Fold:
Amino acid sequence: MKKNFIILIFSIVIVSLLLGCAQTPKRITDEHGCITSSGYSWCNAMQKCIKPPEECVQPYGSDRDVHGCIGSAGYIWCDIKQKCIRPWEENCSKEISKDAHGCLIDDGEEWCTLKKKCLKPWEESCVPDPPKPPIGGDRDSHGCLIAAGYQWCEYKQKCYRPWEESCVPDPPKPPIGGDRDSHGCLIAAGYKWCEYTKKCYRPFEETCSIGGDVDEHGCKGSAGYIWCEVKNKCIRPWEESCTIGGDVDEHGCLIAAGYKWCEGLKKCIRPWEEECPTD
Structure:
């Protein structure tokens, strides 16, 4: 039984080897060594074996002829000029046409008066490029950096930028506590000098008077009294005028206000307000 099993295994191995050899394709190569049986072919342009989908194309710049002219870039060899040329740029001829300035007409050169030389318009412009100042080198006579927007301010004697500050001298700012008047009153804090009380005061805190609302003459302001220099006394303007004569009688009664002198009371009265007793 064991012997028959070994014979069966050996037979299976032999048959498998024979079938594998029968299915292996024959390797076929061409004269360049490319395995044609696997789909490879020789590419002369690339000088190697290639297999689709790779294309057999000439690499750019590698298609130079014996003179070194790159055909893919349109260059051909001009034996007359002994150089590579592109026909649409210059002519390969013995006759060289020049203009009055010596510019090669066949090569497309033109005279540029501004630059004083021959040039090809598609290679160089006939307009001189404006000089580019170096970074930080475009300073004016005062050293102000123009590219950064700085200008010279004569008033402040420095470089400035108009959108950042004004070129007008700033008004002087008094130091804190330094804006005092001749009496030493601090103006910035709202103080003023009161001649009556002989001190600095702030109007919104106290009045400039002797004894509250009484002035230096003793006139009580809250009662409407003011000092009349002519009559040398305190008066109320709606009661009497601060003039001698006019609508005031010899006793000082304000006639226009309806006052009359009462001998019994020894004062000016208005009859509709009080009665004047008689002897």
Notes: The first helix runs from residue 2 to 23. The chain has a mean pLDDT of 78.
